[in-house]
Amino acid sequence: MTAARILWRRIVLLTVLLCAAMPVAAQVPGQRHVQMRIVAESDTPAAGTRVALALVSVPDAGWHGYWQNPGAVGTQPRLDWTLPAGARVGDLRYPVPERLTVAGIMNYVYERPWTILTELELPAGLARGSVVPVRLAIDYLVCTREICVPEKAVLSTELTIGDGAITPERRAAFDGWRRALPRPLGSPALFQPGEPLRLRVPFPAARPIGDPYFFPLTENAIDYDAAQTIRRDGDAIVIETKGTGKPAVIEGVLATGPGQGFAIRATPGVVAAPAEPAPVRAALLAFAGALLGGLLLNVMPCVFPILSLKALSLARSGESAAHARAEGVAYTAGAVVTCMALGGILLAIRAAGVAAGWAFQLTDPRVVLVLLVLTGGIALNLAGLFELPTPQVGTRSGRSGAFATGALAAFVATPCTGPFMGAALGSALVLPPVAAMAVFAGLGLGLALPFLLLGFVPALRRRLPRPGAWMDAFRKGLSVPMFLTALALAWILGRQAGVDGMALGLGALLLAGLGLWWTGRRQLRGRDRAWWPGIAALTLAIATTALVQRAPPAGAAATGIAGAEPFSETRLATLRAEGKPVFAYFTADWCLTCKVNERAAIETRAVADAFGRGGVKVLVGDWTDGDPVLGRFIEGHNRAGVPLYLYYAPGKGEAQVLPQVLTPATLTDLVS
Asked: What pTM does this model have?
């Protein structure tokens, strides 16, 4: 731990202690930020028995209390019981806590209502009908993310000795509170001190663990602020983190989800690291999927013209093999760097708590307008309206041009999500950052692979057609898919920003086209500085992004299936409770694969008839605007974005995840 970090922790701890030492003058007299009460499971317990007591705590919004081990900073509650002679209270049992990190310091807290359970042991010989008073004075610290306030409460209740009856309502309440307690694991755990400290917890391989985290009860056993790496190793979970000592035992709670966990008691022993961590296998599979998905992107209408034009320029140049290799490497570097940059931004956005997926930038109409102008300009260049300066192949400027072309291909490919990409990028979002960036690099490598092979395999270059007059006609033909891409982007802009936004985008494209036409005219006349009209027009066109505003939601997503409804988890739960089969699909206007699947499979007559006969309900999740609620649901199915297709059969617990490329038979077979 660095000296600066120690100093910072001491400053924070001193602040907490000063808050605790100050008189509660800033607090309104009689007002507490955590409301507490004592509840007995039976109001009429029998003499000589034990009765469960619950300390129910409800914090105000924005406030939190602390677990029995508060973490790096905080204090656990101090309780002072006043009981009749012969009565005693057992150990406190806390529910599974939550993590709260403030300024890099880890705290174990409760930001939602929580209940501590214990048992009151009553002495034998108490007369039936006698009253047993129970009083508790409690001192505790309650905080927000900015301030801490020490509070006190005096709680009391009275029990009447009787038959020990428990009402159904009280039984149900205590059952709910007990479910929030960590369950005893029942198997011994081992830990190995050192750097890192390694903890091995027996856990069935077939049982999911959700989002695991180890909350230590033993103080000074681990560094609370250190990251935890949790891996599967057969029928066990291995936790690696930074240790701070050599305790005799380590006790704590292994949380496996919100409000769910297991009580752990580990003794020293030898704990080997897993031989082949699951993240390594997952990262390799995700990398392979991204590589193949990037390769398939080259046939998309927004990428194919760029790749073709670049390949033809290589064939026309007639330069040496060394020059061809240099261009191939530069083009690949541009594609890989751009994909990694977009992936890094995506990971940073998600680290800030925002649900986002691949092509996240297309949920912003300003980015769509820039892409509209860019693809329109490329289409006009291919159509021959103006000429881009052609750097000499193999020179430093030639490599720069190849790098820029690779970056351009990667950037304009982001609206496309083809086969293999969805699962690969979804896996990348749950992998460690280094592995995730490797997956994004694999996407860029797959995208650049055809041109890279051209640069390094002379036999492929020799198969390229000989230069000739046909190349000009072919180039003009390549402008058609780019114009179609621009048209699709204009439609997306209209969906996001309304008719006014679409008109603004088309106006920006017209302005850019006029400037580029003027540039082309100056080029034909051999004028100096021929590019100034185009640069000025492009600058003004892109500046119009400041005027684009998102249109208000227009309602449910349109679909060709009669009776389709907007997706919500509530509606899904209702339909499943009614025993209805449900087909839920998630789409976006900027997702080409989604639209192809909808036209070719989902919205066909055969599927509509089959779904009608089978009583299949259809739910549509429109993720065009990056709805964070839908984003979290999609992420829960190991996907980074759309498309996602789910089928819920009646009586089945889990959804069937369908392929990303659909056919009518894929859907009709679900019903049959």
From this structure: 0.45
